[in-house]
Amino acid sequence: xxxxxxxxxxxxxxxxxxxxxxxxxxPQESGQRLxxxxxxxxxxxxxxxxxxxxxxRVDSTALEALGKSSGAAIIAPxxxxxxxxxxIIARLPRAVCVMKKSILHNPVLGGGARLAGYIANDGMTRxxxxxxxxxxxxxxxxxxxxxxxxxxDARWINPLKGGCAIIAMRANVPVHPVFMRSxxxxxxxGWPLWKRPxxxxxxxxxxxxxxxPAPDESSQAFTARLQSVFEEELSKPHPLRRKAxxxxxxxx
Length: 252
Hints:
With 252 residues, the protein is α/β, with parallel strands linked by helices. It has helices at 2-25, 28-52, 64-68, 84-89, 101-104, 110-115, 124-136, 163-171, 219-234; strands at residues 56-59, 73-77, 95-99, 119-120, 140-142, 175-182, 201-207. Strands 1-7-6-2-5-3-4 form a 7-stranded mixed sheet, sandwiched between helices. The protein is globular and about 50 Å long.
């Protein structure tokens, strides 16, 4: 675990040192392509480390088909943990992530994220415009429709925000719901970074059928439809189904 944190301190810091200047020097398209390539391999190498160290056993093979797809789409996972994005981008080299503005100024991830053209969610209008523009370039937009990590007391998922539906309608692209499951609450909202979980951690990532907005469907109706898809899937009996939080114990 300590080595994993050191990995991010070293290589994430290097990405910021390189990404910041390159973001200013390189043409936008070339810089974004390089940034996404570097982050994809940085995350991919970290996932390999987790597997070899037997800290985490992750099954993300369901993302392989999306990684090979050339069409524009919104990749919409539930957000159970701080490191969900690592497992997904490790499989999706063309992904453009929508993230908190503060992460773009983070000393570990900020430089690489800015170079890759990742999108801040600090303003709804600006975020929607930038996300729709990225999709016109056949990118895969990684957007967590909850807007933040699932709250500890949420049964399956937080109420979804409307941004995912609005972007899908504006760009006329499908939304692929992605179901994240794990046997731990590690790095969920409120979990201290220093708090040790029980290893090995098991993570399963599955992909549902794409949802396409109907011509006469409102953004509220599409959001409700996407919410029901997540709740129906995540509530199914499964060895990694989310467990209720008991008083005084935030981990499953």
